[in-house]
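Recall the central idea of this unit: under ordinary conditions, the amino acid sequence of a chain determines the structure it adopts. In this exercise we apply that idea directly, starting from the sequence alone.
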Amino acid sequence: MKKNKKIVLAYSGGLDTSIILKWLQENYDSEVIAYTADIGQEMDRKKIVKNAKKLGVKKIIINNLKNQFVKEYVFPMIRGHAIYEGVYLLGTSIARPLIAKDQIKVAKKFKAFAVSHGSTGKGNDQVRFELGYHYFGPKIKVIAPWRIWKLKSRTDLINYAKKHNIPIPKDKKGAPPFSVDDNLFHTSTEGKVLENPKNSAPEFIFQRTTSPEKAPNKLTYVSIGFKNSDPVSINGKKLTPEKLLEKLNQIGGKNGVGRVDLVENRFIGIKSRGVYETPGGTLLLIAHRAMESVTLDKDTMHKKDSIMPRYAELIYNGYWFSKERFKLQKIVDLKRNKVNGSIKLKLYKGNVTIQSRMTKSSAYSMKKVSFEENKTFNKSNVERFIKFHKNKL
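Accordingly, the structure predicted from this sequence is:
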């Protein structure tokens, strides 16, 4: 009998989502469509297709969203200088809204009654995915297996996989040493060896950054050009958003830039330790702040800084499509047309130093800041300025 019901599963081709795929087939008597968003993560397309076909999947969709991811999600976030809890550049958080949006688009195209994801019941991603699902497809059912199935442990998953002839990667026959999420913006590593915060992060877990100790013994210089507050070129060469971030990842990663070891407060209330690598994003953030320093006025910059913690928290919690985030984005972008020019950075063994700021903007006046006597700044006004603020004490 032909199945009319359809479910779109966010599918990576790995063990966990392959088990979910089979479980959905067994428990919902529905056709499962395997959906993968290519946002620059390390992935094996042939493996995804092969594993899905082995489980009887007829529709396997792999959408290339890399350029859209960088242009419409990463760049707006960089403009807001979003950093969660002082150090986290939100690499995982910013990817989930786009995946959710595109997954719902696929679900609507094939008239699926439900979408499903492989996020665990303890993590943030389940919230991020499902807020995105609700925004674009409020009537589409969400199936979250980790919250409802009877498989409670890694051993249960392995046994289920064996029963249904699902390939088990060698490194997953026991509990994996760590869990990895990656995309074009970052790599995050969590789990086993990192769960105890007293343990140092072993060097072998780092995937896209060289250790500062082993980074080149010579200086690396890179210039990033900005137009309307977005990066558009590297060393004078214009690049697409995707290629630009790829190039900066290579440059930053080679020089040991962008490593963060963080114990963060998850949205659902659990503390979690993770190691993040965001080499290109780190360079962009430093360069963008430097670019704004010579192109924007004080009030605009300080207003942006004042809203940043809330802006970052909204992204972390999955509220990318919320009215509040849209409202804050308008504040972030209020004078973005003034942020133009280039920043030259010096990289050395994990350190990033600003070398020069070039712009045609008149926001920075060399005449006013000069120590030489000049008539462009009336120092007599300073007396009244200080007196005014004394009265406010």
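The chain has a mean pLDDT of 93.
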